Structure formats: C-alpha cells, structure tokens
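Pilot study result, target chain (1024 residues):
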Amino acid sequence: MKFYEKQRGNCERSHAMLKKASFYACLSLFAGMALPMPLWASQTTAIVQQSAKQITGTVVDGTGTPVIGANVLQVGTTNGTITDTDGKFTLNVPAGAKLKISYIGYNDLVITIGGNNNYNITLKEDTEALDEVVVVGYGTQKKVNLTGSVATISAEKLANRTSANVTNMLAGQMPGVTVIQNTGQPGADAGVLRVRGLGTMGDASAMVVIDGVESTMSSVDPNDIENISILKDAAASAIYGVRAANGVILITTKKGSKGRAIVSYDGYVGWQSASRMPKYLDSYNYAVLMNEAYTNDGLKAPYDDTALGKFKDGSDPDYYPNSDWLGTLLSENGLFNNHHLSIKGGGDKVTYSLAFNYHDKDGLIENTNYNKFSVRANIDAQINKRLKLTTNMAVYRSNMTAPAAGISNLMHYAFRETPVTPIQLSNGNYTLFKNEHNSVAYAREGGTYKETRSNFQGNAGMELDIVDGLKLRGIAATTFNLTDNPTHTNTMTFYQAGSDTPVKQTTNSIKEYDIKSLELNLQAYLDYNKTFGKHTIGAMVGYSQIYKQTRYLQAYRKNLPNSNSLGQINAGEVTGQSTYGTEIEYALRSVFGRVNYAYDDRYLFEANLRYDGTSRFPKDNRFGAFPSFSIGWRISEEDFFKAKWVDNLKLRASWGLLGNQETVNSDGSSNYYPYQNTYVFGYDYNFGNQLTPGISISSPMANQAITWEKTDQWNVGADAAFFGNRLTFSADWFRKETRDILLQLPVPNTLGVSAPLQNAGVVRNTGIELQLGHNNRINKDWTYSVTANFSYVTTKIIDLKGGDTPGQSVGDPLWTYYGYVCDGIFQNEEEIKNHPTQTMGTPVPGDLKYRDLNDDKVIDSRDRQVLGSYFPKINFGLNLSLQYKDFDLSALLQGAADVKSAPVAEIRYAFYNGGKVTEQHLDRWTPDNPNASYPRLSMSDSKNRVTSSFWMQDASYAKLRNLQVGYSLPKQLISKYGISRLRVYCSIDNLFMISGFDGVDPEAISGNYYPLTRNYSFGVNVTF
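Predicted structure:
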C-alpha cells in the first residue's frame, strides 16, 4: 500500500508538472523564442516515462474494416499516435489512463487502460452527417431524404469576409448560383445573383426569405447567418408559387441555446486598392499619337517639337501637363472596419440571441463612404410542453455617400479626360476638359448624394403541438423601410491657365427623394409528421397573405443662398422648383400544401401545390396553381447493395411548374398595374388658344389579358457519400422553360404611348451542375477539406411572337452583343478594291475589314450577327481549407468561362469622343507596322468604331476571391482569462486574377466602372 500511495503521489505531481510544462511550451511558441526548458519539465518527462507501459491495439469500423489514420490520444495530454494501414497502433501510456480514439465520420470513443496490453477497438459510424437537416420551404427535411435540388452553405464559409453584403460572399460557393459583381463602390457593390441562368427577359431575381419572411439580402448581416439554402429546382421551390420561378434563397439566422451566456466579438480593419484598371498613355505619347491621328485625317498636327519636349520634361505643368485623371480620382486608401458583438444563451424555458454590428467603409474616391449599424434579436420561449413562442427582430440604419455628380458619370469622365489637360492649376484653380467637366473637382467639391435607409423587420411566431405528430405554426410579420435620398449640388467655378476670369460657374441645387414602404405578412400552417414501422409520412397545409404599400415623394429647388452652406429645400428659390409624388400597393393571397412519403428511408416521394392570387393581374387571370412532384431512390439502403464503403447513394427526379409575378417594362422599371390604365396629372392642353389643365394616360398602355409568366422545370440528379462521408458527390441535369414571358412588342409610334405588356416570350435554359467534396484528417495535427463545383448553363430564346429585334431574336441567347464579323485590317488599296462595299464609310489601308454574311456584295446592317453573350455559360469554384494544430488556412477560387465582352468605348477606341488612348494602341497599324494589333489612328473616323467581333474579347477569368490565414491561441494560455477562443487572422480578397481580358475586371463588364477592389484586412475572433 505504501508503494502504491508513493507511486500515486508521483503520478499526481507528474500530472501537475506536465500541465505547467505544456503551458510553458505553448507560451514559448507564441512568443517566438527558443527558451531553455526548466529543470522541472525534464523531470516530469522522466517520471511519466517511468510509470508508462506499452500497449498495442487495432481500430476497425462496424464491418471489421481497419480504420486508417484514426487519432489515438491520451486524454489531457499531447501523448498520441495514429493508426497504420492495418488500423494498428502502439503507444506508451500509464495504467488507468484514458484514451480517446477519433476519426472523421465516426463517433469518438474513450476507453480506460487496464491490465491488458492489447486492445481491439470498434468505432461506430457517426450518423450525424446522414441525419443532417436542411432548411426547405416552410420547414426542414433530412438531407438524405431530399428529392429536390437544394444547395446549402454554413456560417463557417462566410466568416471574416470583408463585404457587408451576403450576395458577394456566395460567388463560387455552390453550383448553379452565378454572382456577378459590377462595381466596388461601397454601399452599391452587391452582386447580381442568378439561379440556373437567366430564366426571363424581365426580372430574374431570386426570392429571398429570412427566418420565414420575405426580405432582401442587404437586410441581414453576414455574421448573423446560421445557414443558407438555395432552392434551385421546381420540386424544392414550387411551395413558393408565383414568386419562385428564378429560385428561392432561404436564410436562417443564429438562435440561442441552453446554457451559460456566450459572448463573441468578431472584428477586422483594412484597406483597399483597385484590382484592375486600364493603362493610359502619358501626355508625351498621347500627343505623339494625336499628331499621327490628325495627319491620318488630313489635318495639321496640333503639337510641334517644342510642345512635345515640354510634355516630356514636365517644365510647364499648367500649359503642358501630364495629368493622371484616373489615378487622382481613385487616390483614397479606402479604409474600412467592421465590429460584431453577439450574446446568446438561455435556460430550460427561454433561449436568446442578441447581436450588434457596425460596418464602415470609405471608397477610393473622395466623399465616398458606406456605413451601417444593425441589431438583431431572436428569442424562443417554451411556455409549456405544447406551446412555444418565438420572436425575431432586426433593425438597421445605413448611410451611403457619393459625389453628387454620380459615380458612373465620374468614372466615364475620368476615362475620357486626357493627360494634356491640367486637373488643377498651380494657383489652385480647377480647369475643365473641353469646357465640359472635371471629374476630380466634382468628386472633391461638387457636393454629395446620400442614401439613408432605416429598416425594421419583426415577426412573432407560435408553435402548438396539438397531438403527437400534429403541429400548428403561425407567423405575423411586418417590414418598414424609410429611404431618404438628398442630393446637394454645390456651386463651382472653373478657369483656364493664365486667366483669373471664370470660364464656367455651376448652379447649386438640392433634391430630396423619400421612399416609405410597409409590408404585412401573415402565415399559418399545419404540420403532420409520423412514422409507422417502415413508413414515414409528412404533410403540411398553409395559408399566406401579404400586403405592401410604397409611397414616393420628391422635391427640387436651385440657387440656394450663402453659396454651399445651406442644404434645406426651403432655402432654394421658387422659380424652377418641381415636385413629384405617387403611391403603389399590391397584395398576394395564397394557400399551399406538401406531402412527403418515405418507405424504409429507401423510396422517397414528395408533392407540392401552391394556389396563388396576386393583385398585379386582372380578376380573370389572377389565380393559378403551381404543382411539383419528385421521387428519390436511396440505392445504398437496398439489401442487394453490398458496397460498405458507400454511405449514401441516391437518385432523384422532379418536375414542377413555377410562376413569376414581377411585371417589368422593357426599360427595367416595375409596372404594378399592367392590366389597368393609370393616369398622370399635370399635362396642359391648348383649347382655343388657352391652356387647360389635364391628365394623360400613363405609358405603357394597359392589357386586360395578361397573366404571370410560367416556368416548368425538369430535374434529374444524384447524391453520393463514400468512406464515412469523407468523399461526397452530387450531380444535376435540368431543363427549365419559361413561357408567357411579359414583353412589350413593337407598335406604331402613332399610338402615342408605349406598347402594353403581353405574354409573348419563351426562353429555355438547359444545364448541368456538379459538386465534389473531400475532407480528411491526416493525423492528429493535420486536417483538410476540398470542395469543387462546376455548372454549365445555356439560354436560348424559343419564341417572341414575331417581336424579334436585332440581338434578341428566336435562337439567340440573352444578354448579347450584336454586330459585324471582322476579318482583319485592310493592308492596301487592292484589298479594298476587291472587297464588297462597306456602307459605314469608304475604307483606306489600316481600316477594319468586315464580312459580307449574306453575300450580296454590300456590307450593311443586314450583315450583323450575335457575337456572344456577356452572361457566362460556365461557372466554377474551388474551396480549400487546411488546419495544422492551431494554424488554419482557407482559400476560395472562383471563375467564369464561355463569356464575351468588350471594354467600354473610352477604353477600346483611341481618342473616342476626343478622349484618352490606352497603351495597347501603341501597336496600331501604320505602313511600317502592317501586322499591328489595332487599326490606324483617327480623331473622328467612326467606321472602325462600330460594334464588331474585332473588339470582342474572351471575358473568362479565374480569381482568388479570398485567402485567409489564422492562428488560434492555445486554450491553456487564454482559459484563465475567461476566454474560450481567441483567433487572429489576415485576409485578402481578390488577391490575383487570371484573364486575357484587357482593361477593367471582366466580371464588372456592365457596371459603372468603379473598380472592383482588392481588400486587405486583419481581424480577431474572441469568444468568452
């Protein structure tokens, strides 16, 4: 007994010393110093070795197959090993020690070491992956039993990104989801998200639902999201009926959980730079090329050798400057910061989650900023064993500031303004480019546009368990949004070099534009779920009603006194004032239902039906039914299926009919009353030489026969998981055809109003989607995961009821370029003589040569064709994560292919509208350079500037969307301060891009040319 007690005391002392030694080692590592180990640490090691014994073991799964690479770790220490290719291990441990055996896809197992020296260990498969629950319309389902096509993403994939908008974070994350970011302007940088391509010529936006209530992506902070489900096919989204034709995005926010209060802080700071911008010539080379262009046009060169010398040496910046308009305009650092604080916890009856977020981001242009403050509270209260009440509330206030001239205008100005025009004279006065504009002056001193949004969304819900398996649920929600858009334009004065007399003075003005909207949303539904032996039945029936009202009010006055110091509408003069105001409202009433059946988790069936009525269509066409049916077969659950390494193998197929109630005019504006004539007041008519007040029919005219667009969709897919869910795979093929697309077909101009909306178009989308994932633990220190996705979608116009127009005809894709086919550059007069006549102008050597497509010996507008689409057919993504001990690394690569584009005219054409020239035009055609990349130079000749294949480029790209490296401090260091997790990291967005596209980022082809940005940030994640 004395010997036992002595050894026990030694072991206890050894354990205490070992903990100190571990702490000291971690502290040394963190400090980055190689400190000598104290004497007591080596003594501890010796004692442990003296009391340890060698054991062996074999780790297998439920089928007896060896588990390779399983972690075997002595609990409370770093003493461990991994199993070999036969599942065997050897380890020195003291008697009575506890061993933890773990491996991905299996439940952890803890055993106590007794008198045996050899152990046979069986790990049980972790069924959590198979029991994973996915959020679907009005409920949840087990992922393995899904028969529809649903893409999901968890909060971890969105963590620590520097965007305030969730949309941009989804790029490259899921197959079938395309995100195109057209601008990097703070507050306006949300990407365009499309699910399975372009399904209509009108509004193709997906429906967004947050915690069961229709909302927008901008109303939720990324840090508050628990998970996102995207319903892609008709089987998954038909339950939303008339609003689901373009996909449905379901966002679930974080909820509280039972236990102590958990406080978390996540914050980052950083800066930006433009990711890619065109390279323009300096003033000397610009002047040289301008001389050449004038000579080609038969005119005298504007710059002599003296002037060229001054441009080159920079001796007279007022008269011979070298102005970098674009660099000066985009001169800010774009600092940003984000802070998120959350508290969640609860008891047996009530759980809560409360989150605060503040985001602030400066732009690259002066007076450009976006900031947002948001609060979200989710509370669940279990009143008794049958009744549960919930409430979700979210409030945010955002402010976007930009120069009053408009970002799009400023960027186009800066693309055009030449280096031979001074930005600002040496005396501080601003000049004008061609007596028109000065982008830098407008940005700095021209006034501001502001957009302030105040948004509240709240809902109260209840769940009542009526009897076993039968549940009644209800939600009452309201959304209120107030948008205030004041634009204050300042008075500005401009000069010429050498003169104090102003050449132009602008007039100040103030414009107020307010929007108020209120939406009420009521929902009630019954759920029934029951299992009888091998039969599982689910049913749901529900009712929904939505009402929305929006009011608009605008006022304008100019010539405010006291220069630019006053910003109130009353300060402006009455003469020339204007006002505008209107109101719109619409309502939607629906009943819906769903039936699920599963036999032995092998044979799966689901049917959905929604019956919608919308106020946007006339009474006779207002209501419609939208059904869907889907089946699934889990082959892996069949008795004849003997592949034990296959965890899940499921085939599924679906068909459904969806609707689209978004009535949009051809100019992109919403039309809430397309079936009835509306009127505009304020039109005066002349009767007997006297003006009489009157009204006018609003354009476009009404159509009593219209109804919603309808989309029927077929989907066939497969899902599989192998090797303990370490390898996953999914594939889908779909065909989506949208008919009765609302279009404005051509009408005679004598009608007096624009054409009515008609159900006239048919568009077909066909595509495939693939996703492959792998995760693994190499040993106790290394883990990794890789997920790749790929989608290919084609879009084709099938019918337009005779409303074909150039670039939008039957057989064409959507979002197209339409123009001439170019066959190179004319080299001599002989080539020109033997070529068909080009009606856009008589060519000379150095001009572009166009193809005669119809062989009529004349090249005119009938020789044009579709040159490509700027919506990518191919989208792909690669998500990587790697963890070594306390270090982690993640990377997201995203790209698009099979897409065409042309840079903006100010980039692709030399001297366009008297503007700049890019470096590419140095390789222009001359008699001495016949194999040039670009045609001859000209100041005014437009025949080389028509839309043609010469200017089209492959806009495919692959970019590193995000690279993030983090380090989590050891728990031994932080636990005594009450901290359970402390991680520091650095992150870079858009680190690099691979693309052959010239000029701007090819992703931003249809934006306002404010550049997409490369963001550098440093952050911290702390949990108490």
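One observation from the pilot: The longest helix spans residues 2-31. A full batch analysis is planned for the follow-on phase.
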